[in-house]
Amino acid sequence: MLREERKKELKKQIFFKSIELFKEYGYDNVTVEKITSSCGIAKGTFFNYFPKKEHVLLYLGNSQNDYLQEIAQKHKDVKIKQQLLLIFKELLSVYLENSDLLKLTLSETIRSALNDESRNIYLFKETVTTLIEEAKTNKTINTRFDSKTIASVLVGIYFNTLIIWSISNDESVDIISIFERQYEVVWEGVEQQLN
Hints:
Elements lengths: L1 H24 L6 H8 L3 H7 L4 H21 L5 H18 L1 H13 L5 H21 L9 H21 L7 H18 L3
Helix pairs in contact: 1-2, 1-6, 4-5, 4-6, 4-7, 5-9, 7-8, 8-9
């Protein structure tokens, strides 16, 4: 287990160092050699973790799915509306903590959404669908809408929020508030359809 933890930690270090280099020199100007030199690792070690330089940027999406599972577990005893809102807010907060570095990552992730990243989006939607299904089973939500449709809309507003935030030149744009307003509109629609 200790070996696996060290491997995860090294992968994270490579990721963060690469993002710093991309920010400083520009993505196209950073080579794998520059990354490995800055990390103090061999080129082969880099390729053990990332098949290509582009995969460094996709790492965030992959690691976010693991984080999603942790967050969902942490909020499992909260009513579904609040649970989903807390999950999305925590995921968005990751971007706020490292906004400059992660805007680059986000743009690359969106650009490649139809390729490698589509699996991450699929897993994200499946996790949200499962949470909604569980809420239906536990009778904490009563809706005629299909769980996959609700999950797809929620994940859609999550990515819409990230896009709005990433292209904004206004540093005061509050990513959480943008998401919360859209989330409330969607949730009101889910609840009102019962009346």
